[in-house]
Amino acid sequence: MVDTFIAADWGTTNRRLFLIEGGEVVRTEADGQGAAALAPADYPAEIAAIRDRMGDHPMLLAGMVGSSIGWQAVPYLPTPAGMDQIAGALHRMDDRTAIVPGLCHADPADVMRGEEVQLLGAHAAGLVPPDAWLCQPGTHCKWARLDGGRIARFSTTMTGELFSLLRTRSILASCMTDTVEDGPAFRAGVADGAARGIATALFGVRARALLNGAVDGGAFASGVLIGADVAPHAGPEPVHILADDRLGRLYAAAVSALGGSARLVDSRAAFVAGIIRLRELSA
Amino acid sequence: MVDTFIAADWGTTNRRLFLIEGGEVVRTEADGQGAAALAPADYPAEIAAIRDRMGDHPMLLAGMVGSSIGWQAVPYLPTPAGMDQIAGALHRMDDRTAIVPGLCHADPADVMRGEEVQLLGAHAAGLVPPDAWLCQPGTHCKWARLDGGRIARFSTTMTGELFSLLRTRSILASCMTDTVEDGPAFRAGVADGAARGIATALFGVRARALLNGAVDGGAFASGVLIGADVAPHAGPEPVHILADDRLGRLYAAAVSALGGSARLVDSRAAFVAGIIRLRELSA
Asked: Is A203 on the interface with B (CB under 8 A)?
């Protein structure tokens, strides 16, 4: 019998829905109905509306839907955690609707919600080995260490949020109007961010503009932040990067520039593989 | 004959005026008429009004008054630079009114305007040795290396501005409402910022609140930023800190916590000694 279910990658801002039949995605939706746009009381009607559109199937919900700003705060599962542990800790809202728990790491303290499906899914799909460094660039970039196919530890860097704050609110904003792309300014930022750290290297955006008339401060600042982010991981072991194409290529360029090696992984395929595996383990 | 002149520490936001007679400050003023509040055409009337209030004396103006947002953009003087070089490069607006040039460092690119008077003044006043590391915490923290009484090189860290952005505009803001003071949370931040860098350690503000119910995120974040700032300088050589009392003690605590030694220097006395020395060399 073909198993059919609906998966949600339900983040703070965005929501992505997948109708999955027999292990294949047959329909998707994406919209802005993230957790920030909804009150807890809104969820039953949202869930019913999704089933009206996509069919009356079981649902598996991952991400901020399970946080204090979502439908219900689901306790974090501690590291180390693999698919078995997560499948065993699904939080059932009713007999056909379950929320995937996020993970926490005790020391240094860190948390994730939603990324765990993609990280473990990358391994489930055969896209990364069981022992590997994985990186999910974004507003809050996650770095996770897989050991034996489980998430052993992880940390979060505020790379994307810092870039956004600097570009819109800081004294550097007027120097950061260029389009960020891989090139000499980005590479110079990568080298300086890795060598001197974020807070020092960033002021170079202003100094380069004042002294040299530089008009590539956005690319330089992006390089500084990404360079500092990847520097501790630019070693002999490859970094597996799960991201959209543009950001993934910037991260890969930074890793390479610092002497490491990077492999781009299809992040959507990783999420789908992860949520299917959880469905198999919990059905 | 007793020399009398008016010194201005004319920053972006604030302006401090000193009437100096025979090497002694006999009157001061401070207000919000910084460079950001004035157009270039406003300065002649401002200068005349100051002389109306403080006496018809020669004036020596330091800081952002000499920038592109001030009265007139005065070219930066390159490092290495001491009092002699700066006194020789004063920019005379008329025969009794001069602007002190800022300094630039070529590689890595960096700039300062106003801080040079305080840095070199600290040495002129005998408050720091001729070969020393000096630190001026603030919105844009300056670190300067004195060699033989001259500024050999310097760098700027955006520590204060990053703290302000994070406390007011970031996802961490709601966890940063506590008063920043030296204590366990600040010290934990110092250790983590030094060990893991800003972008990673800062997310601990949120994770500590979510996992442990921590309500000291402001102190922790301040520790992270200051810890990362001082870490490269927490060695056997003392750091001389020029700052207001509160910020100076936080920086000193962070230097000590990371195994270095810090000495607090009276920043107002340093500025006054510096501007008097420049007056002596240029009169």
From this structure: yes
From A112, which residue of chain B is nearest by alpha-carbon distance? B207
ipTM of the complex: 0.95
pTM: 0.96
Chain B contact for A249, CB < 8 A?
no
With a cut of 50, list the residues of chain A below it in pLDDT.
none
Strand partners, A31: A15
When CB atoms are compared, the residue of B170, B197, B211 closest to A161 is B170
Distance from CA of B158 to the nearest CA of A (A): 5
Tens digits of residue pLDDT in B143-183: 999 999 999 999 999 999 999 999 999 999 999 999 999 99
A127 within 8 A of A270, measured Cβ to Cβ: yes
In the predicted structure, residue B14 carries a pLDDT above the cut 80? yes
DSSP-H helix ranges across A216-264: 217-230, 245-257
Mutation for testing the A interface, residue in B210, B229, B233, B251 having most A CBs under 10 Å: B210
Distance CA B162, CA A51 (A): 45
**B211-232 pLDDT, tens digit each:** 999 999 999 999 999 999 999 9
* CA atoms of A17 and A20, how far apart (whole Å): 10
The 3-class SS string of chain B reads CCCEEEEEEECCCCEEEEEEECCEEEEEEEECCCHHHCCHHHHHHHHHHHHHHHCCCCEEEEEHHHCCCCCCCCCCEECCECHHHHHHCCEEEECCEEECCCEEECCCCEEECCHHHHHHHHHHCCCCCCCEEEEECCCCEEEEEEECCEEEEEEEECHHHHHHHHHHHCCCHHHCCCCCCCCHHHHHHHHHHHHHCHHHHHHHHHHHHHHHCCCCHHHHHHHHHHHHHHHHHCCCCCEEEECCHHHHHHHHHHHHHCCCCEEEECHHHHHHHHHHHHHHHHC
Write out pLDDT tens, residues B75-111. Answer: 999 999 999 999 999 999 999 999 999 999 999 999 9
pLDDT given for residue A106 in this prediction: 96
**pLDDT at residue B1 tops 80:** no
A140 touches chain B (CB under 8 A): yes
Nearest CA in chain B to A108: B204
A262-265 and B4-10 beta bridge pairing: unpaired
Which residues in chain B have their CB less than 8 angstroms from residue A164's CB? none
Looking at residue A19, what is its pLDDT? 98
Burial of A8 (0-12, 13-18, 19+ CB in 10 A): buried
Pairing of strands B4-10, B15-21: antiparallel
Q: How far is CA A145 from the centre of its chain?
A: 14
Band (B283; pLDDT cuts 50, 70, 90): confident
Question: Would you state the pLDDT for residue B197?
Answer: 97
Q: Is B2 on the interface with A (CB under 8 A)?
A: no
Any A CB within 8 A of B108 CB: yes
Tell if the CB–CB gap between A157 and B200 is shorter than 8 Å: yes
